[in-house]
Amino acid sequence: MHAKKLDKIATAVLYTIAGIIVAILASLILYILVRGLPHVSWSFLTGKSSSYQAGGGIGIQLYNSFFLLVITLLISVPLSMGAGIYLAEYAKKGRVTNFVRTCIEILSSLPSVVVGLFGYLIFVVQFEYGFSIISGALALTVFNLPQMTRNVEDSLKHVHHTQREAGLALGLSRWETVLHVVIPEALPGIVTGVVLASGRIFGEAAALIYTAGQSAPALDWSNWNVLSVTSPISIFRQAETLAVHIWKVNSEGTIPDGTLVSAGSAAVLLIFILIFNFGARKLGSYLHKKLTAA
């Protein structure tokens, strides 16, 4: 009886702690949404930001956030896939491999401000890319690559060894087995990790302040020259993202309705991050069921 009572007490304590944490997170999310959603409108989502007058929008900042996300994923996904496949399938146990994994663990715990300063010194100053989308994308690649690599490696390792043996028994080479057997089986976990990383990239601010810049110049949608600073597809122009815009409005903004703009921007940013997180789980479950059925 004594053991059962202790078990019930411990279970109740754990449920209470979990409930408190969930309540705090839910109240924080509701506070941001209730405070910001009344200010969100179509004109707010598509309009240009204002420096001195009330009524500005976040259209350019929202576009910059998505464009920067796409460029970052184009760089980081192939690199993380290659590194994850090597560590999971080809790397032999030893000091070198252990050292690489230790470096990945250390890099994954670096503060984003440190990564931003590193990106400023290397990509902005040394490589002379200046404050630009490519500088921000490369800095975010450094920021997210360790986590994405570890996610790919873990997803591949969770594939049962009999799957590999079956591929080899059919006469496939090791690379063909990885490409046609292991990766498709690990795809749900890999995709989930990429989508979760997308949410992290979308909401990042500190690393971009020093690399992508703090201004959002007007875009000329008729100009598709990738080298032009007014082209919407140029990777060499400054690009203030939504997260950086929130920081800037709160820290040094001079617009009369800065509080409303900040609240609306925070609500929009939170909604997209929630979409990324819930979408990752739904997409992972869907792909798992699809591949299992096939």
UniProtKB/TrEMBL annotation:
<feature type="transmembrane region" description="Helical">
    <location>
        <begin position="12"/>
        <end position="34"/>
    </location>
</feature>
<feature type="transmembrane region" description="Helical">
    <location>
        <begin position="99"/>
        <end position="123"/>
    </location>
</feature>
<dbReference type="InterPro" id="IPR005672">
    <property type="entry name" value="Phosphate_PstA"/>
</dbReference>
<protein>
    <recommendedName>
        <fullName>Phosphate transport system permease protein PstA</fullName>
    </recommendedName>
</protein>
<keyword id="KW-0813">Transport</keyword>
<dbReference type="InterPro" id="IPR035906">
    <property type="entry name" value="MetI-like_sf"/>
</dbReference>
<dbReference type="InterPro" id="IPR000515">
    <property type="entry name" value="MetI-like"/>
</dbReference>
<feature type="transmembrane region" description="Helical">
    <location>
        <begin position="66"/>
        <end position="87"/>
    </location>
</feature>
<keyword id="KW-1003">Cell membrane</keyword>
<dbReference type="Pfam" id="PF00528">
    <property type="entry name" value="BPD_transp_1"/>
</dbReference>
<keyword id="KW-1133">Transmembrane helix</keyword>
<dbReference type="GO" id="GO:0035435">
    <property type="term" value="P:phosphate ion transmembrane transport"/>
</dbReference>
<keyword id="KW-0812">Transmembrane</keyword>
<dbReference type="GO" id="GO:0005315">
    <property type="term" value="F:phosphate transmembrane transporter activity"/>
</dbReference>
<keyword id="KW-0472">Membrane</keyword>
<feature type="transmembrane region" description="Helical">
    <location>
        <begin position="260"/>
        <end position="280"/>
    </location>
</feature>
<comment type="similarity">
    <text>Belongs to the binding-protein-dependent transport system permease family. CysTW subfamily.</text>
</comment>
<feature type="domain" description="ABC transmembrane type-1">
    <location>
        <begin position="62"/>
        <end position="280"/>
    </location>
</feature>
<dbReference type="GO" id="GO:0005886">
    <property type="term" value="C:plasma membrane"/>
</dbReference>
